[in-house]
Amino acid sequence: MTASSSFENLQQRIAARDATVAIVGLGYVGLPLARAFVEAGFCCLGFDTDPAKIEKLARGESYIGHVSGEWISAAVQSQKFTPTADPQNLAAADAIILCVPTPLAENRDPDLSFVESTSRQIGDHLRAGQLVVLESTTYPGTTRKIVLPLLEQNSGLIAGRDFWLAYSPEREDPGNANFGTRQIPKVVGGIDDASRQLAETLYAAVVSSVVPVRDCETAEACKLLENIYRAVNIAMVNELKIVFDRLGIDIWEVIAAAKTKPFGFQAFSPGPGMGGHCIPIDPFYLSWLARQHGTTAKFIELAGEVNAQMPGYVLAKTEQALVARGKALSGAKVLLLGIAYKKDIDDPRESPAFVLLEQLLAAGAEATYHDPHIPRLPKMRHYDVPPLTSQPLTAATLMASDVAIIVTDHTHVDYRLVVDHAPLVVDTRNATAPFRAGKSNIVLA
Fold first, then answer.
1. What is the pLDDT of residues 38-84, one digit of tens each?
2. Sign of the alpha-carbon torsion through 186, 54, 348, 39
């Protein structure tokens, strides 16, 4: 079969939804994406190297809050979704989408080990006529200069002739019911026009709209811009929070007033630090790339420094408030409210709660937590996490603490109960705003 006829055949199979799609990496991005393809009528193969995940999925169990076990069970039983840990099964797919982690190394340089190992693994089983798409956030040039050579070396095939390769950055907003996977437009770039066209056809079947760009480098840069924009603006309001606090000004009231301007302003909210896999990590991929090309990304580095200092700021405010009430931080009983990095989700990745927890324990405090979405603290790569379980949020639990620190403003937490019964509340999210009138036990941080 010629490259032209192979391209046309795959294009037609995708358009008819007769193609099999493999999702590699079944985490917070990959599993919802698999659901989107199944719901759009595709047969989907879910691959992950973690056997525990595959075993759970095969039993119809979920490990992600917004993907129900009922859906997984039905999809597996109907054979529309097949979880597997065997990479040989990837040869049966027509399109393979990589959704693997891209963390930072200890020196804040990009760690592409997951992308590289997965690319080699796919290359070992790649066959002619397949489309490969990378979704993992990374720096411009990764798809063409790292993924492409590994696929070619391990398969003996030629990109653009025997198989096609594209980049489409993941866009997930966990906890936002208005924007599920299928409602979010997808940016798509390829190593060539044919690769981009196939990826466009693939994603057009499952998302609201597709935004094609000139090449994969443009698509890679687009994702970094989105995350850098948020990181820098959040750092700005975090810094303003510290300055306004010294001036006796409520940052939250300032933001609420500024939001009334119908143009030229977008509101960002301060907090106890940065969390999630994207904002605390991805901007540094570009600052690293800038250094490789003899320049700097000062805004990115400065934003990282500001956001990284926020847990320490919260700790200092907490200690000051305790001392003002005749209580030392060492030996104090501290209840953290919220471990997830944002409200109403079960994702703890890079949550500032872990930094704050480490700092509290190092200062000699006794720490417990409540989070309705995280019943037990998970093991984390960069933190020494104690074996804690979520405590029930009761009047007795609150009164037994010396201070409750609101780290994550989950919706289904009774903040009136908190302010009525906790001796001291340190609020990093403005969650107590409706209940502060007449209360002297609340400190904004």
1. 999 999 999 999 999 999 999 999 998 889 999 999 999 999 999 99
2. positive
Note whether 376 and 396 are within 8 A (CB).
Answer: no
Residues paired with residue 24 on neighbouring β-strands, in sequence order? 47, 98
Q: Is 278 a catalytic residue?
A: yes
Phi, psi of 321 (to 5 degrees): -65, -35
Question: Which of 365, 422, 428 lies closest to 393, judged by CA?
Answer: 422
Instruction: Please compute Rg for the chain using Cα positions.
Output: 24
Q: How far is CA 415 from the centre of its chain?
A: 26
Q: Which backbone phi and psi does 444 adopt, to 5 degrees? A: -85, 135
DSSP letter string over 252-271? HHHHHHHTT-SSS-------
Q: Which residue in this structure is represented by tokens 């700005």?
A: 236
Please give the span between the terminal C-alpha atoms of the chain, in angstroms, as a whole number.
Answer: 65
d(CA 419, CA 399): 10
Select the more confidently predicted residue: 66 or 343: 343
Separation of alpha carbons 118 and 147, rounded Å: 9
- CA pair distance 118, 132, nearest whole angstrom: 12
Sign of CA dihedral 106, 109, 110, 113: negative
Contact criterion met (CB below 8 Å) for 21 and 45: yes
Tokens encoding 183: 């409602």
Mode of pairing for the β-strands spanning 131-134 and 164-167: parallel
Q: What does pTM read for this prediction?
A: 0.92
| Pairing verdict, β 425-427 and 403-406 | parallel
